[in-house]
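in:
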């Protein structure tokens, strides 16, 4: 039996063998708490500090700006709630195509009395800077947007929006989850905080981090301890943090090569499918990161396509893993203005470092075979 083909790397990635090695070693050795003052505790503290320095150096920030979390969802909740708790009222600017961890958190803040503007994006797939500038109000307290859309791979012009936020003296929180590991980037000066997730870059699940400027006023989501510079209480997940630092070290050494490889595999898939099938549309007109393509197959139901591809041994997604269990059209694609039938016929393909040329050849064959069969049956 041939191995299954995994094309859902925006949902999660496999552990890199080098990351797994340091994770297992730390799980074997770990003894002590980084907050303890005895020998074992201080050994843990040294490893924690070294890991923080590796990540800070990679991103060009200060070590005390790195806050370790459990992942992207906690990062969003920590930063958005933490900032807005400083105000009894106020206005938030976000978009209609954010990941649910931001979208639903802002919705919850609305229930608490804050006001929000969910900016439209159109077929581009990303908020344009002028729309952010036009949405500013005297009581705007926060701007929060994604750097890269997790469903389409479309990039937001974070640099221009950061300049707008900085000029207006408004905190700007960025969702960087779908950006990290895809290409090199710099964090613009006007970004107040940006959050990331480990399991999207071949590190373990359950570990992530936020880069948070010391000047950003925010309350901690978890209290009860002074860990993470008083911004995130609780004993640190040291094995996860060490594994995360190893994953970041790999990016520091190999990012250019990784980006080139991901782009080649994504293009191989996209071009291969579109050369052999009619009625295939790429969703998202904006610039994209290297690994993602969102395709609509005219006349085919996306859920039927997803399930039939799964039976063919090809794992793909109908949208975000946080919501793809629901048999509903993508909120993101609908908010881009796609007609319901086109949104319903969409599939997200996201390749990774372990995706081979042979995987793509087999995947294209499988996709063509399934789409032709479903179209013939009227599915």
């Amino acid at each position: 039996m041939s191995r299954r083909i995994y094309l859902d790397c925006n949902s999660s990635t496999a552990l890199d063998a080098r990351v797994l090695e340091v994770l297992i070693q730390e799980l074997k050795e770990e003894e002590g708490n980084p907050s303890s003052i005895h020998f074992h505790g201080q050994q843990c503290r040294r490893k924690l500090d070294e890991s923080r320095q590796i990540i800070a150096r990679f991103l060009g920030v200060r070590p005390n700006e790195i806050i370790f979390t459990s992942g992207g969802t906690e990062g969003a909740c920590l930063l958005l709630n933490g900032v807005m708790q400083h105000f009894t009222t106020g206005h938030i600017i976000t978009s209609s195509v954010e990941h649910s961890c931001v979208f639903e958190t802002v919705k919850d803040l609305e229930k608490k009395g804050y006001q929000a503007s969910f900016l439209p994006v159109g077929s581009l797939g990303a908020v344009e800077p002028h729309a952010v500038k036009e949405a500013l109000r005297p009581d705007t307290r926060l701007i929060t947007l994604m750097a890269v859309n997790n469903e389409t791979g479309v990039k937001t012009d974070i640099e221009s929006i950061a300049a707008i936020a900085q000029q207006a003296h408004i905190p700007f929180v960025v969702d960087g989850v779908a950006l990290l590991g895809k290409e090199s980037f710099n964090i613009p000066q006007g970004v107040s905080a940006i959050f990331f997730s480990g399991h999207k870059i071949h590190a373990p699940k359950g570990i992530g981090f936020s880069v948070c400027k010391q000047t950003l006023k925010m309350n901690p989501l978890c209290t009860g301890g002074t860990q993470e510079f008083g911004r995130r209480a609780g004993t640190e997940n040291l094995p996860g943090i060490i594994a995360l630092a190893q994953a970041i070290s790999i990016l520091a050494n190999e990012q250019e090569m990784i980006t080139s490889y991901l782009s080649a595999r994504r293009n191989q898939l996209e071009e291969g499918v579109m050369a052999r099938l009619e009625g295939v549309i790429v969703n998202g007109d904006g610039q994209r990161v290297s690994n993602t393509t969102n395709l609509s197959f005219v006349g085919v139901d996306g859920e039927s396509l997803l399930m039939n591809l799964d039976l063919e041994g090809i794992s793909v997604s109908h949208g975000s893993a946080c919501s793809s269990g629901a048999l509903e059209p993508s909120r993101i694609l609908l908010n881009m203005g796609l007609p319901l039938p086109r949104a319903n016929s969409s599939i997200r393909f996201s390749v990774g470092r372990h995706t081979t040329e042979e995987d793509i050849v087999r995947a294209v064959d499988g996709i063509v075979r399934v789409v032709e069969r479903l179209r013939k049956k009227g599915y």
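note: The chain has eleven helices and twelve strands.
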